[in-house]
Amino acid sequence: MLLKGPGFYRDSLFKLGRDMAQTIGYYTEEGLTKLKDELTQLRTVERRAATQAIVEARDKGDLSENAEYDAAREAQALLELRIAKLEEVIANARIVDETKLDLSKASILTTVKIKNTGNGMMMKYTLVAENEADLKAGKISVDSPIGKALLGKKVGDKVDVQVPAGKVTFEVAEISI
Questions:
Q1: Which of 53, 60, 87, 172 is the most exposed place for a label (fewest CB within 10 A)?
Q2: What is the pLDDT of residue 160?
């Protein structure tokens, strides 16, 4: 079943491929393990399922008029791109050694307690890589607006963060592991 118009998947593949810049990412050991598990799942289970979908669609007749076949091929191409992206991320991943973290300033894997100076509310976040972010667990990405603002800050520093509700000022109250 084709959900988008013609060329959508081709354009998506081009955009995703273009965005695959080689950048080093910093992860916890747990986060890197999750990425490797996802890659294994994609290579073994998902790849096999995509191939089976193509075989089943091919058996339904004329390929020139078979939208199901085209959709299965496009889905396979997106899967292969996701696999390539994960391989690149894992190849460029670095595990952060928590014992060598500088707790005098906020950095990846540090837990930062901040105070909203507007309403006095205290919040505690652990700064993690984008793939490990989970707001419910108190983990925010270093690429998020709050994460970016906190990086490099010390206890007592104030930061202004542009959030959807407007500009909010936070004060760094504590930094720990």
A1: 60
A2: 92
